[in-house]
């Protein structure tokens, strides 16, 4: 293709015109630009996500008695020490009980509560805010509230005395039979409201025609909740279950630290708290990160299981 241009003296000169860039060239340039923009995020991910993950497996093979102490290779010694430690098996049992009790209660209760809110009953907007309040309270504040309720001279024992049920009073956080249960109650209370708000938001996006068709077929709220709406948002339930599973598995250490310190004995010690205890109190980093490897494998297996259970069947 040529174009006319003015030359000195007024004569017209024909010159070549560069062809417009092709679609493939434009796409290639955009891809290269997107790759360059993604580099900082990729570096951040490698340094702060993959790096610590690799460090866990490396430290698990070391004998490291404190941050400033000399390091030596331990091989499988840390694994043998962990497997021979009865406290580790107590932590495994407590973590299994915590997940088996807290996770179903939280997910089922939150789904039912979210379904109720999604029906927009009177005052449903205020109810959403009230359900979200536990998610806005810091963990130390939650622990203080539960300590005030469950301490020997706390609100719960006081209420039982006033009701003539003094024989049921107990040192809830200091009793081997109730310490773990108290922590589970705190986990459920902390997570059920926030999770219910998430479910209500997802259920609110389900087309109204589905609920109307279920009502025309004579389905009550219970049947519509579990047989109609639940299959529609099944994949979202799986995502929320994964999040709560990870939070319960890895985040329980802070509640244990603030309320029971893993006691009495090891009756409320969980795997995540054992990682903290061995690293920062016992100064045994090799043992701590060996438990961290176990915790990582449990989390990975749990995520894959939850994903398989809640995947869509259509």
Automatic annotation (TrEMBL):
Keyword Membrane tagged: yes
Which membrane topology term applies here? Multi-pass membrane protein
Localisation: Cell membrane
Key words, A-Z? Cell membrane, Membrane, Transmembrane, Transmembrane helix, Transport
User: Would you say which domain of life the source belongs to?
Assistant: Bacteria
| InterPro entries to which the protein is assigned, alphabetical | MetI-like, MetI-like_sf, UgpAE/MalFG_permease
- Report TM segments: 36-64, 96-117, 129-150, 179-201, 232-250, 286-306
Renumbered residue ranges of the record's region Disordered:
1-30
> Keyword Transport: yes or no?
yes
Residue limits of the ABC transmembrane type-1 domain?
Answer: 92-306
Q: Which family does it belong to?
A: Belongs to the binding-protein-dependent transport system permease family.
Q: What is this protein called?
A: Sugar ABC transporter permease
Q: To which species is this protein native?
A: Streptomyces silvae
Q: What is the lineage of its organism?
A: Bacteria, Bacillati, Actinomycetota, Actinomycetes, Kitasatosporales
């Amino acid at each position: 293709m040529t174009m006319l241009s003015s030359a000195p003296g007024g004569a017209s000169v024909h010159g070549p015109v560069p062809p417009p860039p092709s679609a493939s060239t434009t796409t290639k340039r955009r891809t290269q630009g997107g790759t360059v923009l993604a580099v900082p995020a990729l570096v951040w991910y490698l340094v702060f996500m993959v790096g610590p993950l690799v460090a866990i497996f490396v430290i698990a093979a070391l004998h490291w008695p404190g941050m400033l102490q000399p390091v030596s290779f331990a091989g499988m010694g840390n694994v043998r020490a962990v497997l021979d430690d009865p406290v580790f098996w107590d932590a495994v049992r407590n973590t299994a009980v915590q997940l088996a009790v807290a996770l179903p209660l939280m997910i089922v209760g939150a789904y039912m509560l979210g379904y109720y809110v999604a029906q927009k009953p009177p005052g449903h907007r205020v109810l959403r805010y009230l359900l979200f309040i536990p998610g806005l309270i810091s963990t130390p504040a939650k622990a203080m509230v539960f300590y005030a309720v469950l301490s020997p001279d706390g609100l719960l024992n006081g209420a039982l005395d006033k009701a003539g049920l003094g024989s049921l009073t107990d040192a809830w956080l200091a009793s081997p039979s109730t310490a773990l249960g108290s922590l589970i109650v705190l986990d459920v209370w902390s997570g059920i409201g926030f999770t219910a708000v998430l479910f209500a938001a997802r259920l609110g996006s389900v087309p109204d025609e589905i609920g109307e068709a279920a009502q025309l077929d004579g389905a009550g709220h219970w049947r519509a909740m579990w047989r109609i709406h639940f299959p529609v948002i099944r994949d979202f339930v799986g995502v929320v279950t994964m999040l709560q599973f990870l939070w319960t598995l890895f985040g329980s250490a802070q509640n244990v630290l603030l309320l029971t310190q893993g006691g009495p004995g090891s009756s409320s010690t969980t795997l995540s708290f054992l990682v903290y205890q061995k690293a920062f109190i016992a100064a045994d980093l090799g043992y701590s990160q060996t438990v961290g490897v176990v915790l990582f494998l449990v989390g990975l297996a749990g995520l894959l299981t939850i994903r398989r259970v809640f995947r869509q069947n259509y």
